[in-house]
């Protein structure tokens, strides 16, 4: 056995090996130690290997899913080695000592789950593959629980943004690749070949050309190749459901990088959970598929005005008709998750219950179609979805006739094929039923004949049917002419067989075996029908999910008076009475009121500098506007009285000096790297929020950087921008930057107490309230009064010298400074041209920076 185990162990690679032994999956050696620690189960030992006891632990097969889920969540991957023959077959093959053959039947990994118990209903589970081909990056992503697949090509510096959008739970890359992101799994480079990718896709979808699905680049196909090869590997040759791939072209989605996603807390709060995130505050979907679609929409809002308008039109239609909305939501709520049921069916792990779910979901779709069909003219998006809900008449009819109303998850016991579907199966069931009745009659007869009132006919898996009497009445049945044969003596009871009983029992067993086989054959046929219709079923699932999203968005809007945004081309951002959905909900829970605020950016007034006290609501204001843009371009209503939004191509959100130590960069470094990305990428169509950029370093450096960044955003990027800052000195920028204006969050000191109004006012902040906030926060009065003394002194000094910003008025304008600097930089430019950035390690890059800095200082 050890040799077999070790061979399988080798094959399992870095996965834990679940080794099937009877009713248990056993783990040995280091696997056992690791799993026992994660699962908190006892670690035992068995036999010896190389002179030491072998550590072992095990989990029962019937409850293995729960254990698997915990291991996967802890970051493990698991290889399942099943017995591929019965002990009887092994004996026949190799004698009484023969070892049962085992083989790894599949690998269970975070990105390749289909089991209902292992998946979260409201979250997609994505597996992604990334590779590089001639300088550009191919990305393939799929959710095998529903079969959705997407291909994308992007530039090397966009890969982390693309991956952040996809949110994969598992990522595979070529094993020799410098760009390997953390935690990615290396796979043979030959898997990532565009020809094999193309050939696999053609084979899966039975087409001679992929043109019908879209235009795929070589890099996309190479990534698809890597993805499919990995799926083939983990499924041991059995591929899961894969729908025709969709191209995601860059530019069709609002671009957001990883830092922006994290800081806007779109799908996850900064604490890591869904609670406190945007989606948590917005999601009113009544189905898991709807919630997954909404997450997708919020991760990749649109940039196409017509597509946004179509989604908004549907939300508005459902918003206005509350009755219809309630009706639809009620109907959708009752529908099973057909996308995921289909995923299990195609993956070969479907159960009779999954088929029942397909029947119920598809017939529910047909009913909705009928209901909506009576509504007259429909919004364009809905009209396009209608045909996808209508079909499947034959399939629904077949499944309705074939299956019982609530089919079981296990098919081993049969009983899921409905009566009346197959006459011969009904006949077999009748025979078994008759025999069961005959056995009940036999019990009465035997009692009569023997005079033993306590006689019973029982059944167990070892003996089958038998007659049991208490020990003291056994004598009568032991008589040779009694017609009973002794089978077993128990404490206090004796068990017997009888010819008539045996005959009836055989009849039951035979009919049972035949009917099980008949049901099994029907099951396979029904599975085949579902598999053949997989693309159409997936389209129905997608249509239902889209309707659920729209109805949920309408519901959310109706709940709190959200409004339909007006999406326009000109780069403005006019939000009237805007609110932050998450902060508002948190305040409402404490019975506090959220103060709505306006935002009015236009090409003539596109950069707002916002000052005011800590805790005054600056960050909240910045984010609420970014979230409103995001929600609007995702095609939903927004938390505002009115909103006119000029289409945004890229959205950036930066918070000064947030901790990112996990990545090994100092906080200030992170802040600057992220700011650099904005300055490099923001266009005139972008919207940027900068929250106290520069605060991560000394006051002078911070002010200088904040000043320069604000100027660059104003002069060079020319994007819409909200810039929150503590530096009063920045107010002087308003003198030179004509599209920049000053604003502040208002506060009052009343009877020595600070009152934060959370209201945005025009003009610069009148003063700092740092000390008042410190008092509010419970800093001891003594410390606050000492700080006050220091502040008075500093302020006196400032009055004399002109303060931090003294002399800044003489600074040449940003554009003029640029021109002067360009001349001086020629030598630097030359040197930089020669640098191969990809070939530099971070350390070398830093050294080079120092060197260049030294050179400029010497100029
Ligand atoms: N518009 C608002 N209406 C009501 N309460 C608000 C509003 N905006 C913010 N708040 C409350 O004030 C708290 C602080 O807000 P926020 O973090 O936006 O302030 P800030 O000015 O950015 O502070 P800091 O400068 O310390 O980062 C929020 O958690 C919320 O409870």
UniProtKB/TrEMBL annotation:
UniProt cross-references to CDD domains, sorted A to Z = ABC_MutS1
Residues reported to bind ATP: 612-619
SUPFAM superfamilies according to UniProt: DNA repair protein MutS, domain I, DNA repair protein MutS, domain II, DNA repair protein MutS, domain III, P-loop containing nucleoside triphosphate hydrolases
Name the SMART domains for this protein: MUTSac, MUTSd
Alphabetized UniProt keyword annotations: ATP-binding, DNA damage, DNA repair, DNA-binding, Nucleotide-binding
Domain DNA mismatch repair proteins mutS family, residue spans: 686-702
- Keyword field contains DNA-binding: yes
Q: Pfam families, per this entry?
A: MutS_I, MutS_II, MutS_III, MutS_IV, MutS_V
Name the family: Belongs to the DNA mismatch repair MutS family.
What is this protein's function per UniProt? This protein is involved in the repair of mismatches in DNA. It is possible that it carries out the mismatch recognition step. This protein has a weak ATPase activity.
For this entry, the protein name equals: DNA mismatch repair protein MutS
What species is given as this protein's source?
A: Novosphingobium kalidii
Q: Which gene encodes it?
A: mutS
């Amino acid at each position: 056995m050890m040799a077999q185990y070790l061979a399988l162990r080798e094959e399992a690679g870095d996965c834990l090996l679940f080794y099937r032994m009877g009713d248990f999956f056993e783990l040995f050696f280091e696997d056992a130690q690791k799993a026992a620690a994660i699962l908190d189960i006892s670690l035992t030992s068995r036999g010896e290997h190389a002179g030491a006891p072998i550590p072992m632990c095990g989990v029962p097969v019937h409850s293995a899913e729960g254990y698997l889920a915990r291991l996967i969540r802890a970051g493990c991957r698991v290889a399942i080695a099943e017995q591929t023959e019965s002990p009887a077959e092994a004996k026949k093959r190799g004698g009484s000592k023969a070892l049962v053959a085992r083989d790894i039947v599949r690998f269970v990994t975070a990105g390749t789950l289909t089991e209902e118990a292992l998946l979260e209903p409201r979250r997609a589970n994505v597996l992604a593959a990334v590779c590089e081909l001639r300088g550009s990056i191919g990305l393939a992503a799929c959710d095998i629980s529903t079969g959705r697949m997407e291909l994308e090509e992007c530039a090397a510096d966009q890969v982390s943004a693309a991956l952040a959008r996809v949110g994969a739970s598992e990522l595979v890359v070529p094993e020799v690749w410098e760009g390997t992101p953390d935690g990615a799994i290396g796979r043979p480079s030959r898997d990532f070949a565009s020809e094999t990718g193309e050939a696999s896709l053609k084979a899966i979808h039975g087409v001679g050309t992929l043109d019908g699905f879209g235009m795929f680049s070589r890099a996309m196909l190479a990534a698809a190749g890597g993805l499919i090869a990995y799926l083939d590997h983990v499924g041991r040759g059995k591929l899961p459901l894969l729908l025709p791939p969709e191209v995601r072209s860059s530019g069709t989605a609002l671009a957001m990088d990883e830092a922006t996603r994290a800081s806007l807390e779109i799908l996850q709060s900064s604490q890591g959970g869904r609670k406190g995130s945007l989606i948590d505050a917005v999601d009113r979907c009544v189905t898991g598929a709807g919630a997954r679609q909404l997450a997708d929409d919020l991760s990749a809002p649109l940039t196409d005005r017509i597509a946004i308008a179509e989604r908004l039109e549907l939300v508005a239609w459902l918003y206005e008709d509350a009755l219809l909305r309630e009706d639809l939501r009620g109907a959708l709520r009752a529908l099973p998750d057909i996308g995921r049921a289909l995923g299990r069916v195609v993956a070969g792990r479907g159960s009779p219950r999954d088929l029942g779910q397909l029947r119920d979901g598809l017939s529910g779709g047909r009913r909705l179609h009928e209901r909506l069909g009576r509504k007259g003219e429909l919004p364009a998006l809905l009209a396009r979805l209608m045909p996808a809900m209508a079909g499947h008449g034959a399939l629904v009819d077949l499944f309705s006739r074939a299956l019982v109303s609530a089919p079981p998850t296990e098919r081993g016991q049969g009983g899921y094929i409905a009566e009346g579907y197959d006459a011969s199966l009904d006949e077999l069931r009748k025979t078994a039923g008759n025999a069961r009745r005959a056995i009940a009659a036999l019990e009465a007869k035997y009692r009569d004949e023997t005079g033993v009132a306590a006689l019973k006919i029982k059944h167990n898996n070892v003996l089958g049917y038998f007659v049991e009497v208490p020990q003291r009445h056994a004598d009568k049945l032991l008589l040779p002419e009694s017609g009973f044969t002794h089978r077993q003596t128990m404490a206090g009871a004796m068990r017997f067989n009888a010819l008539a009983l045996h005959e009836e029992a055989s009849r039951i067993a035979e009919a049972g075996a035949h009917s099980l086989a008949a049901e099994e054959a029907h099951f396979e046929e029904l599975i085949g029908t579902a598999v053949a219709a997989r693309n159409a079923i997936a389209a129905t699932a997608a249509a239902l999910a889209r309707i659920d999203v729209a109805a949920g968005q309408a519901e959310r809007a109706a709940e709190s008076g959200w409004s339909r945004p007006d999406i326009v081309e000109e780069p403005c951002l006019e939000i009237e009475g805007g609110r932050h959905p998450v902060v508002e909900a948190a305040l409402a829970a404490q019975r506090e009121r959220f103060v709505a605020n306006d935002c009015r950016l236009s090409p003539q007034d596109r950069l707002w500098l916002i000052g005011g006290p800590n805790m005054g609501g600056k960050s909240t204001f910045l984010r609420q506007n970014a979230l409103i843009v995001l929600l609007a371009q995702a095609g939903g209503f927004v938390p505002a009285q009115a909103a006119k939004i000029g289409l945004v191509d890229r959205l950036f959100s930066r918070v000064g000096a947030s901790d990112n130590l996990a990545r090994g960069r100092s906080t200030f470094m992170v802040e600057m790297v992220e700011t650099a990305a904005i300055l490099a990428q923001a266009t005139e169509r972008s919207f940027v929020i900068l929250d106290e950029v520069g605060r991560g370093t000394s006051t002078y450096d911070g002010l200088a950087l904040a000043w320069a960044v604000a100027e660059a955003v104003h002069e060079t990027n020319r994007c819409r921008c909200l810039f929150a800052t503590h530096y009063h000195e920045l107010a002087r920028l308003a003198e030179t930057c004509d599209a920049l204006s000053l604003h502040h969050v208002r506060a009052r000191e009343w009877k020595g107490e600070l009152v934060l109004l959370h209201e945005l006012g025009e003009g610069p902040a009148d003063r700092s309230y740092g000390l008042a906030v410190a008092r509010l926060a419970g800093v001891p009065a003594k410390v606050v009064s000492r700080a006050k003394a220091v502040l008075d002194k500093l302020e006196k000094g400032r009055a004399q010298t002109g303060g931090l910003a003294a002399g800044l008025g003489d600074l040449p304008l940003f554009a003029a400074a640029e021109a002067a600097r360009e001349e001086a930089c020629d030598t630097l430019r030359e040197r930089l041209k020669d640098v191969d950035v990809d070939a530099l390690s971070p350390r070398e890059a830093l050294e080079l920076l120092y060197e260049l800095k030294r050179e400029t200082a010497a100029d």
